[in-house]
Task: structure prediction
Amino acid sequence: MLIWFAEAAVAVAVAMVTMTRKARRLGAPLSSAAPAYRFALAYLPPLVAGMVLTPVFVTLGLMARLPGCWLLLYGTAAATGGATSVRVVPLMGICFMALGTIAFAAPAAWGHWLMAAGFGGLHIGFGLVIARKYGG
Result:
């Protein structure tokens, strides 16, 4: 879990740097009130649900099923938060949700690989599409 949490911290740092760069390049304020508020209302509840469910899963001895939980809820966050973004972002969320569903059905030993496929592979693949087609 420490590796997963460390990766999450790195992802947040990368996201903040890239969002700041894009906002500066476009000359747009980073925290425009209305869009940021709508995004937060859609994006944060599934992530908070994941934060609440993580210790529940751990306490119940379901750590091996955390990848399914995290992929599914992160996908939900991306799909709902991305509803105010370009079309490919909600699609990415749906792909994460599908991968989370697969993680629940697959053998628990596959969890690390499915996390890598999602938080590594899907992010890189969709990130390249978003960078190329939409400028970041």
The radius of gyration is 15 Å. Residues 54 and 66 are 7 Å apart (CA to CA). The first helix runs from residue 2 to 26. The chain has a mean pLDDT of 86.
